[in-house]
Automatic annotation (TrEMBL):
Domain of life: Eukaryota
Name the record gives this protein: Phosphotransferase
InterPro entries the record matches: ATPase_NBD, Hexokinase, Hexokinase_BS, Hexokinase_C, Hexokinase_N
Gene Ontology biological process terms in this record: glucose metabolic process; glycolytic process; intracellular glucose homeostasis
GO CC field: cytosol; mitochondrion
Source species: Coemansia asiatica
Catalytic activity reported: D-fructose + ATP = D-fructose 6-phosphate + ADP + H(+); a D-hexose + ATP = a D-hexose 6-phosphate + ADP + H(+)
Domain Hexokinase N-terminal: from-to ranges: 19-211
Domain Hexokinase C-terminal: 217-456
PANTHER family given in the database record: HEXOKINASE (PTHR19443), HEXOKINASE TYPE 1-RELATED (PTHR19443:SF16)
């Protein structure tokens, strides 16, 4: 981004000085990124050595790679915070995938009381509507279960729930095996369905990418939240106490959104980040996620806007009930602002005056709002490179061959320039010719497809 983007025509000297201060806080030098990458690698090593570290590095019990030649139809359940998807995934044997899916909105009763019965009933509806329910001598259907809540995984198809997050709070489940709870609910309906694999969404994203491109090494979600999974050499996982898999590898769920949550010492915290963290429902947790994921970027921008308004450097000090409310600036508003190149910045004017209800914005107000959006988005994309570089350089021997990184999520897919800025930042630390071997690919809806693929692998081979 050229420096001229940060010059505000018609701005007062005080307004320009405040913008310059924001630029200093949010534009990260390569040296700063390098120091964060070094610390990220150190935290990865800690998580590989022992449980209870800030980067959890959780073994997924997935140790195989699909070849792309597998065929057949497989099933998956993908549980989100607001809805549930049941999928039938058909593999064509040439790396191609066809999906048929049905969404079920989670009821309030499901979120607080009857979740596993609700899931079982949804599976029953999906199968019965398509005449797929096994009868007579037909074999049971194997299903993968994408469950993106904190679990202590104990095998490919078992895991103990640590806590509920994302708006779910079903009593009597914490400390119990979620696969067993679901399997019992399926049995109560007389459904011959076996839950063959418990899958984190990033692990699913990786396996979905790996079916399409066997060189896939990482699966990442850059969306409402962020996390990653990758194939690690099992000999590097010092805390692993099980039998070493024949492949010599294990997919690890990194839970990387928690990076630096214990110390707050390495990420580039500004007063606006600290304020967001302090007022969030999970203070001093998910520090990395709060700087780079879609749930939080709009709120960081709102904090900056209010900071400027409080100094009468934006909107002449005016605000509104909407602007004063947490989460009132959605990250999608930043996307719109970044791409508004109209002479009067009319889309930004619409956001400020109609959506946020702050009347009579000036051209300087709109330019500053755009700069805030650019800075928050660019910092997110450059910081996202930290986890990518740290993970890829953990296994440097792989950088001399093609590596695909499957990425899902709204930030990667929709936020303007996110993909380009991320790739550029990675190239600063993994230069040519190795950077040429790295391919970033969109693994859309990868979590559900990957869960079905893992169920297929688990059924065919003890993974």
């Amino acid at each position: 981004m050229s420096e001229s983007i940060y010059l505000v025509e018609c701005a007062t000297a005080e307004q320009q000085a405040a913008v310059d201060e924001l630029v200093k806080q949010f534009l990260l030098s390569d040296d700063k990124l390098a120091s964060i990458i070094k610390e990220f690698r150190r935290r990865m090593e800690e998580g590989l050595a022992a449980d209870g570290r800030v980067l959890k590095m959780i073994p997924s019990y997935v140790s195989e790679r699909p070849t792309g030649s597998e065929t057949g139809s497989y099933f998956a359940i993908d549980l989100g915070g607001t809805n549930l998807r049941v999928l039938r995934v058909t593999l064509d044997g040439k790396g191609g995938v066809k999906t048929e899916q049905q969404k079920f909105m989670l009821t309030e009763e499901a979120k607080t009381r009857t979740l596993f019965d609700f899931i079982a009933q949804s599976v029953e509806t999906f199968l019965d509507d398509r005449n797929l329910r096994p009868t007579g001598q037909q074999p049971a259907i194997s299903m993968g279960f994408t469950f993106s809540y904190p679990v202590q995984q104990t095998s490919i198809n078992s895991g103990i729930l640590v806590q509920w997050t994302k708006g779910l709070n079903v009593p009597g489940c914490v400390g119990r095996d979620v696969v067993r709870l679901l399997q019992d609910a399926l049995l109560r309906l007389g459904l011959r369905v076996k839950v063959a694999a418990l899958v984190n969404d990033t692990v699913g994203t990786l396996l979905s990418a790996a079916y399409t491109d066997p060189s896939s090494q990482m699966g990442i979600i850059f969306g409402t939240g962020t996390n990653a999974a990758y194939y690690e050499d099992i000999s590097s996982v010092a805390k692993w106490k099980g039998t070493n898999p024949a492949s010599g590898e294990m997919v690890l769920n990194m839970e990387w959104g928690a990076f630096d949550s214990d110390e707050f010492a390495f990420l580039p915290f500004t007063p606006h980040d600290i304020k967001l963290d302090r007022k969030s429902i999970n203070p001093r947790k998910q520090a990395y996620e709060k700087m780079i994921s879609g749930m939080y970027l709009g709120e960081i921008a709102r904090n900056i806007v209010l900071w400027l308004a409080d100094q009468r450097l934006l909107f002449d000090g005016r605000s509104s009930d909407i602007l004063n409310s947490m989460w009132s600036i959605d990250t999608s508003y930043l996307s719109s602002a970044v791409t508004d190149d109209s002479p009067a910045l009319s889309e930004i004017q619409q956001i400020i005056e109609k959506t946020l209800n702050v009347s009579n914005s000036t051209m300087a107000d709109r330019r500053i709002f755009k700069i805030i959006s650019v800075l928050v988005g660019e910092r997110a994309a450059r910081l996202s490179s930290v986890g990518v570089v740290a993970t890829l350089t953990k296994r440097p021997e792989l950088l001399d061959m093609p590596i695909n990184i499957g990425i899902d999520g709204s930030m990667y897919e929709h936020f303007p320039d996110f993909e380009r800025i991320l790739a550029e930042a990675v190239s600063r630390f993994i230069p040519e010719p190795q950077f040429r071997n790295i391919r970033f690919s969109l693994a859309k809806d990868g979590s559900g497809v990957g869960a079905a693929i893992i169920a297929m692998l688990a059924t065919k081979k003890d993974i």
